[in-house]
Amino acid sequence: MESLCLDLHCYCIQVNSSDYGDSRVMVPTRSEERDLIKTKGGRNRTILMDHIELAPLRDYQRKEYELQRDDPRFKPTPPRFDPCVPEHKQNGALWEYLTGA
């Protein structure tokens, strides 16, 4: 999950029963702040909720690497990250952008 979160530079949500591991919501930031929610075990089924702010992540992803280094909210985007992707995601046109359709 950590690699997925950092390599794709996105929020990641994992849902499991206590039989198969943990459930969590992760954000691509420093390791001590990465898990917004993380839980494992227990006898009762529960619902845990959190609020995810996508706009700050998209704004951060549009910045050049030098500006990302000065902003501690997230980890810098991975090498060769396409800064056009956040805009296309926001406009609902990512598939068309990636496939050239």
Description:
The chain has 101 residues and is an alpha+beta fold. It has helices spanning 2-7, 54-61, 65-69, 85-90, 94-99; strands at residues 12-14, 23-26, 35-39. Strands 1-2-3 form a 3-stranded antiparallel β-sheet. A hairpin with an 8-residue loop joins strand 2 and strand 3 (35-39). The longest helix has 8 residues, at 54-61. It is globular. It starts with a helix and ends with a helix.
Specify the helix fraction band.
Answer: 25-40%
Report strand %.
5-15%
Could you tell me the number of beta strands? Answer: 3
Please mark out the parts with pLDDT under 50 across 5 or more consecutive residues, or reply none: none
The number of helical segments is: 5
> What does the radius of gyration come to?
16 Å
Distance between the termini: 31 Å
The largest sheet, given as strand count, sense and whether it forms a barrel, is: 3 strands, antiparallel
- In which order are the strands of the major sheet placed? 1-2-3
Oligomer: single chain
| Global structural class | alpha+beta
Large-scale geometry: globular
Give the SSE string: HEEEHHHH
Average pLDDT works out at 89
